[in-house]
Design a protein that fits this description.
Helix content is 28%, strand content 24%. Helix 20 crosses helix 21. The chain contains 34 helices and 61 strands. A hairpin with a 6-residue loop joins strand 1 and strand 2.
């Protein structure tokens, strides 16, 4: 702004001129005579002059412009509000042309609103098979794949004009010739194919709209007048809607009619109340003519003390507490009320707005096999039907022309995979579901392939990538064969374990053979141990399980995911180094890698890493490679650096090659990532050969099946795509893709939303193996060509176009896999026995005589048609700060209340549970939902929660966590399988409270994919730091035991005065200090046999006259089998069921209130028959050390087996920390 304009503003301020609306728009400015200065533009934003006026006048600018509002539609006319309660028309819908006509005001309004467009162009894929034959496919390709960005254009054009402009913009940026090239495939634009162009929607433009919570959309829907004719669409819980919702009437009384039906009221009474509400809300009395609004129903509920839930686009927009509940969904111009009380309560419990969803564990499909599908014949009936994927829109139009709104099931955010329509008595006179599937290309060939494989998989209409993945998983699972021990091997193991149980050291004539690592998740060598039946049963119940069917997938904690999985992947090596003559002269040669990616898996020499959330990125300090290595070597060109494409993560196979070739030095490898578990290197060889053989010799889909697998492994983020249709454009959810679907004489708007499914699983290690092996093979070819002084021209992922010298032709065609680890010695001989200074690592040999490379005379078809840039990867690894912020208890609580997470530690008995129960109480008082979990029923009951296994199955496996804060108690007891699932929640922004004592026992049978987990793995992991947010409170003051007892057992842990004393000396001191020798109500033992013996003896000794005997006959089948018990009022029993039943939980103590000849009644009201009591309950005088964690004992306690060979300082610590008084503890 120049000096003269400033002076004019100064004069107007001095003259007291105030901003006013400028003629012809809602812009605001200063006006004196003909002199005008604009302060607020039509977009509502201050101009430079407006900013100057604010500074000089010291006054805020008035609200102006018409962009800060939503255009309102009445009939075929849209308008916006102007000053002076005027309305300005922006555009009109022309039914004859099926498009909008813009006014001058509308042109200004919509020119300032832009939309992004997602575009996929039609392509023809021309490729060449291994036998030289050619194939052609048709598909669509997102423009982002060729480096183009989504297009953004203003909305002051009609739909057809916008689509034409977007297409014109994309066509202007498409490269000449082929759009994309990879290996033996070229992707060209299909001039006759159809383009996919979808508009991205945004939230409403209303002042104060909160786009993150969809508040703007809520306002639009709440004030919509409803009462139009109902449509038969796909609704949330559609089976629970009341019948009146679908009745057709000439009036607008659909809402009161349904309300009266649900609440059993008179329609007239409801109408009177709604009229009163309308007067208060809108100061009108027209609802019976124009329809009721959802906001009126909400206020009706408020006035009458009712609960209310309003649903739109399958999301809860508004809730109002109260009872009974009115719940309804708004769709287009009609409201649909729910009749079912259960559904109304479920909707009230739902959260408003977006809900975080986790990726669910895959389950068996309920879709029938394709052989049972029938061809679609334009007849509406229940069943499964199929059409060609290009005909699905025609079938949908058939439904819409008949007033039926089928649910459109999406394959991805651009393409539909099927239609589903629920038939109802009221709509079609019959009940059932009609599903129309689109059959993918080559569906018949895929079905035949599955039949030839004969592995129990049947074809259900999936695409080739998904089918190939299922086949590989099934075949990999089939490589696991149970090992049966020979008599000789059993004898060796029994002798090694002294004919005793490996867990409790008890002798038994019925020892059972246990897999040390869970067989169902192991693939390597099977190791066994003898266990008594009780220990075997306990270990089987408690050992880790991942709940995950994909044995090849790795799972990462959030920080490691961001450091590794989110980092750039190895790029494909596609580049033109020199211009090839237009007419390709003789002498050019094309060399390519035979089945590069398939052979990378089949001939893999390194065990396949499978990561768990306890695996962290480590700084490399030793000359040892990890499964994955971060390399920082400066990038120049992959041609000179033999396949190296820049800093980033590499699979070990590439790092070995680059060290061997002298491209990379050890100092360049800064960090490593090594997996807990590894699968055998050859585990994929057999399954891949089986898959290939079932296709037949040189079948076109054989290569495509494997490559599609690798394509799936490249996808880490998973989305659920949902299409909603409406004739109301304002129904667009924020952030959706919008398209217009025409049918007959009508149209509907399709809104496609994509919901990210949060997970921590990734197959990137497998993808890196393939891509890095490909880069190694390219590097090896480059090395051989460089040694032969060949001139290199072009690179296409796994092939090189070059011109050799006649006198020194490269020896690529002669090389075999077994030659690749000695390539330098063969092509660059050195003195015998000498090793080059830059040869820093050996390459793992591949003992196979197959030839990795194929060399042919080049043809014109081998020349690239694109001009790609030099492949380059750049990534800087950001190290995570793993230091802890140790806080006093009051500051720790404040940190949590401010939204942070927290770890609470302390020796047993220091009040961790009590402290966090107080924090939870304050969190709940602030309105947050807190769930509490622990490993055992005892610990979870004490903290007020449920077992972690139960919570994980309900909330994580099913994909919808329902709390704001999760408190995980006794964290040292949780196994890796549970942490694998719970770590997914760290990606959701959930708060965590963690509590526990790592001085206690670690989980039983804690293994992952056949590898045992170290006892301190979780305590030392980055996962613990991530979940706690780096915040820690350590409690030091004992609240359970007396000072004498606490002082002794707290000295047994690391850092304590007795930790290095030795077990024997510590036990002697404990016996000298803790001398109770009376009758002990509580006893801790190592073995189950002793537990059973003690329970029997004490039960008989303490039984009063008149005790009821529960007799158990027969021989016990295992250590925790039912045993004969004498029962009387006051005796304490313990639950023994692995799964809660009859109100009894495993490990929880129950006191008998009364006992008769027919029933046992427990305090709390649980009544059991004698048979149920014998099944669910056991005597509790003696327990094992391993099962008492999370418990505390009132009364005398005796520790047994202190001379047992398995007894340790940890047993002594755990046992003593269960008691309260030193005077009531004894040791034997």
């Amino acid at each position: 702004m120049n000096k003269k304009a400033k002076q004019r503003i100064d004069v107007m301020i001095a003259a007291g001129v105030s901003p006013t609306r400028l003629k012809g728009s809602d812009a605001q400015g200063l006006k004196v005579g003909r002199s005008t200065i604009k302060l607020i533009g039509i977009d509502g934003n201050p101009t430079v002059a407006g900013q100057y006026w604010t500074i000089k006048s010291g006054q805020p600018l008035p609200v102006g412009g018409f962009m800060q509002q939503e255009a309102v539609r009445e009939g075929n006319v849209e308008y916006i509000a102007l000053a002076g309660e005027r309305r300005g028309v922006t555009r009109k819908w022309n039914e004859a042309t099926g498009d909008y006509k813009f006014t001058k005001l509308g042109n200004d309004y919509y020119s300032l609103i832009r939309r992004n467009y997602v575009v996929a162009v039609p392509v023809i894929i021309n490729g060449k098979r291994k036998d030289g034959s050619k194939y052609t496919l048709k598909s669509r390709m997102p423009i982002e794949k060729i480096g183009l960005k989504p297009k953004s254009i203003p909305l002051n054009l009609n739909l057809s004009q916008r689509r034409a402009l977007v297409k014109q913009m994309v066509e202007g940026e498409l490269p000449e010739g082929a759009l994309y090239e990879v290996s033996d495939e070229a992707w060209d634009l299909d001039p006759d194919g159809s383009w996919l162009i979808h508009e991205e929607t945004v939230g409403s433009r209303r002042v104060g709209a909160d786009l993150d919570t969809n508040l703007a959309e809520s306002h639009v829907v709440l004030d919509r007048r409803v009462g139009a004719r109902p449509v038969f669409s796909h609704f949330l819980f559609s089976e629970a809607l009341c019948e009146e919702a679908f009745e057709e009437h000439e009036d607008k009384l659909c809402c009161p009619r349904q309300i009266a039906s649900v609440l059993k009221l008179e329609v007239g009474a409801v109408c009177e109340d709604l009229l009163a509400v309308e007067r208060a809300l809108y100061q009108t009395e027209t609802w019976e003519e124009v329809g009721c609004s959802p906001r009126m129903v909400l206020e009706y509920c408020r006035m009458n003390g009712l609960g209310c839930v309003i649903v739109h686009n399958e999301q809860v927009l508004e809730t109002l507490p109260g009872f009974p509940i009115l719940a309804f969904t708004v769709h287009e111009g009609h409201s649909y009320f729910y009749k079912s009380t259960r559904v109304r309560q479920a909707l009230m419990a739902r959260r408003t707005g977006e809900v975080t969803r986790l990726k669910k564990t895959q389950r068996a499909s309920s879709t029938p096999i394709t052989a049972e599908w029938k061809p679609w014949a334009n007849e509406l009936e229940a069943g499964h039907f199929f059409v060609d994927e290009n005909d699905l829109d025609t079938v949908r139009a058939w439904f819409l022309d008949r007033g039926k709104y089928p649910k459109v099931m999406m394959k991805d955010r651009l393409q539909a995979r099927g239609l589903m329509y629920n038939l109802t008595k009221r709509g079609e006179g019959k009940v059932g579901t009609c599903v129309v599937h689109s059959l993918p290309e080559n569906s018949g060939l895929i079905s035949d392939w599955l039949k030839r494989l004969d592995i129990g998989l049947e074809y259900r209409g999936e695409g080739l990538p998904n089918v190939a993945l299922k086949v590989l998983q099934r075949l990999v699972k089939g490589t696991r064969e149970r090992e049966w021990l020979t008599g000789e091997r059993k004898a060796e193991l029994l002798e090694a374990y002294d004919f005793k149980c490996a867990m409790c050291d008890s002798r038994s004539s019925t020892l059972e053979w246990d897999h040390i690592c869970r067989l169902s998740e192991s693939f390597g060598e099977q190791e066994f141990q003898p266990l008594c039946s009780a220990c075997h049963k306990e270990k089987t119940e408690k050992e880790a399980r991942s709940y995950d069917e994909d044995q090849l997938a790795s799972h990462f904690e959030k920080a490691t995911w961001e450091q590794y999985v989110d980092s750039p992947r190895p790029p494909p090596l596609v580049y033109r180094a020199r211009q090839v003559p237009e007419e390709l002269p003789p002498g050019f040669v094309i060399a390519d890698v035979r089945r590069c990616r398939k052979n990378a898996l089949e001939y893999c020499t390194h065990p396949l890493p499978v990561f768990c959330p306890l695996d962290d990125v480590k700084r490399r300090t030793e000359p040892t490679l990890g499964d994955l290595n971060f390399v920082t070597t400066k990038y120049k060109s992959f041609i000179h650096q033999l396949g190296y494409a820049g800093p980033g993560w590499q699979h070990r196979v590439q790092t070995e090659w680059l060290l061997y070739a002298g491209v990379v030095a050890w100092a360049d490898i800064t960090h490593t990532l090594t997996a807990t578990a590894h699968l055998p290197a050859s585990i994929l060889s057999g399954p891949l050969r089986t898959m290939e053989a079932a296709w037949g010799e040189d079948h076109a889909l054989a290569k495509q099946a494997v490559n599609s697998l690798i394509g799936l492994w490249a996808i880490d983020e998973c989305y659920s795509h949902k299409l909603r249709s409406s004739t109301y454009e304002a129904d667009a959810p924020s952030g959706s893709l919008k398209r217009t679907f025409h049918h007959g004489d009508g149209l509907v708007y399709d809104f496609i939303t994509s919901t990210k499914l949060v997970g921590n699983a990734s197959c990137r290690p497998l993808h890196d193996l393939c891509m890095c092996t490909e880069a190694v093979r390219m590097g090896q070819m480059l090395y051989a060509l460089r040694q032969a002084s060949a001139v290199v021209y072009e690179f296409k992922t796994d092939s090189i176009l070059y011109k050799p010298l006649k006198r020194t032709p490269p020896k690529l065609a002669e090389l075999r896999f077994r030659d690749l680890d000695t390539l330098r010695a063969q092509l660059e001989p050195s003195a015998e026995g000498a090793r080059r200074l830059d040869e820093r690592h050996l390459v793992s040999p591949i003992p196979n005589d197959a030839k990795p490379f194929r060399v042919l005379d080049a043809t014109k078809g081998d020349v690239m048609k694109t001009h790609p840039r030099l492949p380059r990867r750049k990534w800087t690894l950001e190290e995570r700060d793993r230091t802890w912020d140790t806080l006093p208890p009051d500051e720790g609580e404040l940190r949590v209340l401010e939204g942070g997470s927290l770890l609470c530690t302390g020796v047993a008995g220091t009040g961790k549970t009590t402290y966090l129960q107080g924090v939870v109480e304050r969190l709940r008082a602030s309105g947050k939902r807190v769930d509490i979990v622990s490993k055992t029923h005892v610990a979870s009951q004490r903290a007020g929660g449920v077992t972690a296994d139960h919570w994980v199955r309900r909330h994580v496996i099913n994909g919808v966590p329902s709390c704001d804060v999760l408190w995980i108690d006794e964290i040292s007891q949780l196994d890796v399988g549970l942490w694998l699932q719970l770590s997914k929640l760290s990606f959701t922004g959930m708060q965590f409270l963690l509590s526990g004592d790592f001085n206690q026992f670690s989980p039983i049978g804690n293994s992952f994919r056949g590898s045992l987990i170290a006892e301190d793995a979780f305590e030392a992991s980055g996962l613990l730091h991530t979940l706690a947010g780096g915040n820690r409170v350590e409690l030091l003051e004992c609240r359970r035991s007396d000072a004498e007892l606490f002082g002794f057992y707290s000295s047994l842990i690391a850092g304590g005065s007795r930790f290095d004393l030795g077990l024997a000396a510590a036990v002697r001191e404990a016996k000298a200090l803790l001398t109770y020798d009376g009758l002990a109500e509580h006893n801790l033992v190592i073995g189950h046999q002793k537990r059973i013996k003690l329970n029997r003896e004490l039960n008989q000794q303490l039984a009063p006259p008149g005790a009821i005997r529960l007799e158990v006959s027969g021989k016990a089948s295992h250590g925790n089998s039912a045993q004969t018990m004498l029962l009387w009022p006051g005796i304490v029993l313990i639950g023994c069921l692995a799964v809660s039943r009859h109100g009894i939980q495993n490990g929880v103590l129950y006191t008998v209130e009364s006992v008769t000849d027919e029933a046992v009644v427990l305090i709390g009201g649980v009544s059991l028959t004698h048979a149920h009591a014998k099944t669910c309950l056991r005597l509790s005088y003696a327990q094992t050390y391993a099962s008492c964690q999370g418990s505390e004992f009132d009364g005398p306690l005796r520790l047994h087996d202190t001379n047992h060979k398995f007894f340790s300082l940890k047993h002594l610590f755990v046992g003593l920390s269960r008691a309260k008084l030193a005077s009531e503890v004894g040791l034997v």
